[in-house]
Amino acid sequence: MNLLNAPSSPGPAASSSNAPGQLDTRAMGVMTLLCLVWSLQQISLKAVADQASPMLMVALRSAVALVLLALLMRRRGEAPGPGRWKPGLAVGALFGLEYLLVAEALRLTGASHVVVFLYTAPIFAALGLHMRLPAERLGGQQVAGIAVAFGGIALAFLGGDAASSADARSPALLGDGLALLAGAAWGATTVTIRCSSLTSAPATETLLYQLLGAFILLLPAAWLTGQFRFESSAVVWAHLGFQSIVVSFASFLAWCWLLRRYLASRLGVFSFLTPLFGVILGVALLGEAPEPAFIAGSVLVLVGIGLVSARCRVGPRFKAAGAFMARTSEWAAKVLTLIRGGNTDAAIAQIKVAPSVKDIRALEAALAQAGLAGRWRDVDQTIAQSIDALSAPRLHRSP
C-alpha cells in the first residue's frame, strides 16, 4: 500500500498539518471497529455456509467490490501503472489462492481456528523478506518471535479433538492446515509487494489486482468443485452485502483514511485484535467451543507475531553507527546529493520508496553530519513517515 501522502513542496515553511500523528480517541474507536469487521468476515461466511458456499461468496463479494473500486478509481482519475502488471498478476493469484484456502478451511474447521491461523501471515512474511532483502534480516527478537509463534501453532494442532483422532487427515485438522497455508499465501503476497514495483503503487491499484485475482480464480473453482450453491434469501443477500460493501470496500477506504492521518505502526498494534475478536465471536455467534490447547496456542501465536512485527528504533546513542551507515549506504548518498542540489521533490519521492529503515537512518545521520538536518520540514516529515510505515506490522493491505 502507498501509506504516504506527505506534502512535496520544499522549504522550511511547509505545513505539518498533513503529517500522520499519534492516535486519538477517534482513531482508536475506528480501528477497533475495523478489527471487529475484519474478524466478522470468517464468522459471516461460516454462518451461511449451508445456504451459500464460502468460495462462491468470496468470488461474488470480490466482483461487487471490484466494480465499486473501479468507479472510485475512475472518479479519482487513477489507472494501473503500465509497468506493474506482472507483479500485479502475481499478487492477484496469491490473494485468490489465499481465499481459496480460507473457503475450503471454513468447510472443515471452525471460524475461530481459521482467523487465528490466517493471522500467522506476518511470520511467513518475515521469513520471506529475510531471504529476499538484506535490510530485512531477522534479529534475535524476531527469531524468538518466530519460535514462539510456531510453538503456539504446534500446540494448537496437537491439542484438542482434531489431534485426538488416529486419522491424521481428520477434517478439522485438515481445515486448520489449510488456514495456515492461507496465512502463508498472505505472507507471500506481502513479500511480492515489497520486492516489486508495487511497493510504490497506490493502495487502490494493489487492491484492484487482488480483487480481480480472487474473482477470476474462485468463481470457476466454485463451479468445478460443485460449490456453486447460493440460496436467494434475505439472510444470504444481507451477508453478501456485508462481505462486499463493508468488508471488501468500505473497510479498505477507512483503513486508508486512517493511514493518511495516523502513524501506521500505532494502527498496526490494533490489528492484532482481529484474531482475538474472531475467537470470541466464534464462541458467541456460532457456538464454537475452542479447546484449551487451541486457546493457549493462539496466545503464543499472537505473542510471537507481536515480537516479529516489532522493530527496534534507533536512538540518539546510535548516531555514530548511523554515521557509519551513511558512509556505506549508496542510496543515502544519492538522496543526500539531491537534497544538496536543491531538488527536494526528487529526494522526497526517493524517501517514500526507501529500501529499508536502515537506509533512512543512514540518510538522517548523513544530513546531521552535513549540518542540513531540520532545514526542510517536508523532508523531515517524509523521513519520519517512511520510518513509521516501514516499522509497521507486515500487513500491506487492510487486514
Summarize the model shown.
The protein is mainly α and 399 residues long. It has 18 helices and no strands.
Give an account of the 3D structure.
- With 399 residues, the protein is mostly helical.
- It has helices spanning 25-47, 54-76, 85-108, 111-118, 121-132, 140-158, 161-164, 171-194, 203-224, 234-261, 264-270, 273-286, 292-309, 319-328, 330-340, 344-352, 357-369, 377-391.
- The radius of gyration is 22 Å and the shape is globular.
Write the layout of secondary structure elements.
Layout: H1 25-47, H2 54-76, H3 85-108, H4 111-118, H5 121-132, H6 140-158, H7 161-164, H8 171-194, H9 203-224, H10 234-261, H11 264-270, H12 273-286, H13 292-309, H14 319-328, H15 330-340, H16 344-352, H17 357-369, H18 377-391
**What is the molecular shape?**
globular
Order of helices and strands: HHHHHHHHHHHHHHHHHH
Number of helices: 18
**How far apart, in Å, are the first and last alpha carbons?**
12 Å
Report strand %.
Answer: under 5%
Number of strands: 0
Largest pleated sheet = none
Integer average pLDDT? 81
What Rg do the Cα atoms give? 22 Å
Helix content: over 70%
* Low-pLDDT residue spans: 1-18, 312-328
Question: Which class of secondary structure composition applies to the elements?
Answer: mainly alpha
What descriptive keywords fit this protein?
399 residues; mainly alpha; disordered N terminus
